[in-house]
Write a structure and sequence with these properties.
The protein is of the alpha/beta class and 272 residues long. Helices cover 40% and strands 20% of the residues.
Length: 272
């Protein structure tokens, strides 16, 4: 007949045995565990505006916060020419973003140039490396593994597009911030590409099929219904400023440098 005392000792031995087994398992898997949980942190930044809120932005933020719960996500909310509509939108998006503890945001009432908004992301980022993403993209849950394992170079275009890219703060210190004299949207990326090439910095590119751009044709812009455009998508004002700042050519010229990304030659000394 088993006594109460014997039952106690058997139970204690069983608990002790389970503890030893778990301790051995941890010792065997320690490197895997530490490797999986201790990786370099980075920031993720998104610029958005009123017309993308329901169609793209809300779904994207929900996905990002699930895939990257331990990463800092920075949202820059651009202004809008209809200030009454913008006021209501800011109330909605603020309430929505306040649900997520790893999201911080900066919002504007009046429209700002994309250069300024990108600079805002970098300034507010807590980490050396910053992924900047468009708001009209589709992502896969396995994107986390891809971004963590991706080489963290000074500047890397994902899928050879400025719609999603990695930039290091070190690059910004050496090249400078995005030129905020581009007051609307478009050509700020081309300008930065010229500056990188002129200072002998290489732009890397990497293919990640876990992230795709929708390339939506805008039906409305932050800057007003009458914003003059190039290719129905980018600001004519920005295009004109690019041509004032740089001498560019579709043909090779002496002392000009070549941008393969934009398939154009340019004088590496800016005029402005």
């Amino acid at each position: 007949m088993t006594t109460l005392k014997q039952t106690y000792w058997k139970a204690r031995d069983f608990v002790f045995w389970k503890f030893i087994v778990r301790l051995q398992w941890f010792a065997f898997n320690k490197n895997k565990i530490l490797k999986g949980n201790h990786h370099e942190k980075f920031s993720i930044g998104i610029v958005t505006y009123i017309s993308r809120y329901d169609s793209f932005f809300k779904k994207l933020i929900v996905q990002l916060t699930r895939i990257f719960p331990d990463m800092e996500i920075i949202v820059i909310v651009n202004g809008y020419y209809d200030l009454e509509a913008q006021k209501n939108y800011l109330e909605k998006i603020s309430a929505f973003l306040n649900q997520f503890p790893n999201v911080k945001y900066v919002s504007y009432h009046e429209p700002q140039g994309l250069s300024k908004l990108w600079n805002n992301i970098i300034t507010n980022a807590s980490h050396e490396h910053v992924f900047i993403l468009n708001d009209d993209i589709i992502i896969s849950p396995s994107l986390r593994k891809e971004l963590i394992q991706m080489p963290k170079n000074t500047l890397t275009l994902i899928n050879n597009s400025w719609s999603h890219f990695l930039i290091a703060k070190k690059t910004v210190q050496e090249i400078g911030t995005f030129d905020e004299r581009f007051i609307e949207i478009g050509n700020e990326d081309q300008d930065y590409e010229f500056r990188l090439i002129a200072q002998n910095h290489r732009t890397e590119t990497i293919l990640i099929n876990k992230i795709k751009s929708v390339v939506e044709q805008p039906l409305d812009f932050s800057y007003g219904k009458n914003m003059k455009t190039v290719n129905k998508k980018y600001s004519l004002a920005n295009w004109n400023f690019l041509n004032k700042k740089w001498d560019i050519s579709t043909e090779k010229k002496e002392n000009y440098l070549y941008s393969s990304k934009f398939n154009i030659w340019f004088n590496p000394t800016p005029k402005l």
